[in-house]
Amino acid sequence: MRVTVVGAGIVGLATAYRLIRAGATVRCLDVGEPMGARSAGDTRIFRVAHGDPGLVAEARRASELWDDWSMTAGRTLVGGERAKVSGPRVPAWSAAMTAAGAIHRVVDGVLHDPAGGVLDLVGAGAFLTAAVHPERAGVRAVDADGAVHTDAGTEHADAVVVAAGAGTPALVAPLGIDVPAALEHHARFTFTGPADQPCHLDARGDGDLASTYQHRTRAGHWAVGGHLPDADTAWELGADEVARRSRAAVVDHVRRLLPHLDPTPVAELRCTPMRGAGDGVHRARAGAVHVVWGDNLAKLAPRIGELVAADVVGDTPVGGGGRDHAP
């Protein structure tokens, strides 16, 4: 079976890897470098904690698959730092974890997720890239019959997977698949300081920030990000202006509430999430073309790859135009 995967971010690579293991002949194409765009950066937060029992269950399966990848790669890809969640969503998230049978505890209003930790995105990318061998190629269009139109010409595959991040909406709109195209700018910042704490998602507002998150990036470095009001992250403002506003808000947050960190950022990471997407994975299909999109996908990447590959080889077909909202 010949499959073309469009997109060499963590989800595209995970899907290609799973398809190769299933015996498919796979080409993975991306206009940019592998693990670029939304998959850029050293680390992400892995967590089982979610507000939906279905996503909790899928994250538990993803955890098992991350362990498999770690064994194959010969390096630990999810650390043992753990994760904690604070703020008004704790009761609902605790209920979702209880419903899914996920181990956790709530102490003084803070949910502790023992399966959480820091995801080594660099290590995962190196492992997947070595296994998949993605190719640099711009894809202009895909057809429902499996034709893939690249800058170099047209090729045909038995199936196509589109996991192209911000490029997905334009590629699949002609197929009748409606993927939200509204994007926003986002930036997180790295500070020096102790990096031996749990990852933390805090839904309590602070100043201009509606919520914050923080986690280790590498030894002695700590990443902090926050979510500004929609008006401050609008696409029309431009990446530089949104990063400026984010930097001011995050630095203020660090100065006041994280005194163990040096409040001068030493690095900045920008990305372009879908506006208002939040947690969740979405899949659809038109003919031979399988599409996957969403935000906060890195932690679920092995599970998404497993499911999309199964769709492609016919084990769990989504059906024409079908869609799932939790992988």
Can you give keywords for this protein?
327 residues; alpha/beta; FAD/NAD(P)-binding domain; D-Amino Acid Oxidase, Chain A, domain 2; 6-stranded mixed beta sheet; 19 strands; 28% helix; globular
In terms of topology, how is this protein built?
Elements: E1 2-6, H1 10-21, E2 25-30, E3 43-46, H2 53-73, E4 83-86, H3 90-99, E5 105-107, E6 110-113, E7 117-120, H4 121-132, E8 135-136, E9 139-142, E10 147-150, E11 153-156, E12 159-162, H5 168-172, E13 186-192, E14 199-202, E15 211-218, E16 221-227, H6 239-257, E17 267-271, E18 281-286, E19 289-294, H7 301-313
Parallel strand pairs: 1-2, 1-12, 2-8, 4-14, 12-19
Antiparallel strand pairs: 3-7, 4-6, 5-6, 9-10, 10-11, 13-16, 13-17, 14-15, 15-16, 18-19
Task: Explain what the structure shows.
- A hairpin with a 4-residue loop joins β9 and β10 (147-150).
- The model is unreliable at 317-327 (pLDDT under 50).
- With 327 residues, this protein is α/β, with parallel strands linked by helices.
- It contains seven helices and 19 strands.
- It is globular, with a radius of gyration of 20 Å.
- It has helices spanning 10-21, 53-73, 90-99, 121-132, 168-172, 239-257, 301-313, and strands at 2-6, 25-30, 43-46, 83-86, 105-107, 110-113, 117-120, 135-136, 139-142, 147-150, 153-156, 159-162, 186-192, 199-202, 211-218, 221-227, 267-271, 281-286, 289-294.
- The two termini are 24 Å apart.
- The strands form four sheets. The chain has an eight-stranded mixed beta sheet with strand order 5-6-4-14-15-16-13-17, sandwiched between helices. Strands 8-2-1-12-19-18 form a six-stranded mixed beta sheet.
- Helices cover 28% and strands 28% of the residues.
- α1 packs across α7 and α2 packs across α7.
- Among the domains are: 2-79 and 119-133 and 277-313, FAD/NAD(P)-binding domain (3-Layer(bba) Sandwich); 186-271, 2-Layer Sandwich (D-Amino Acid Oxidase, Chain A, domain 2), CATH 3.30.9.
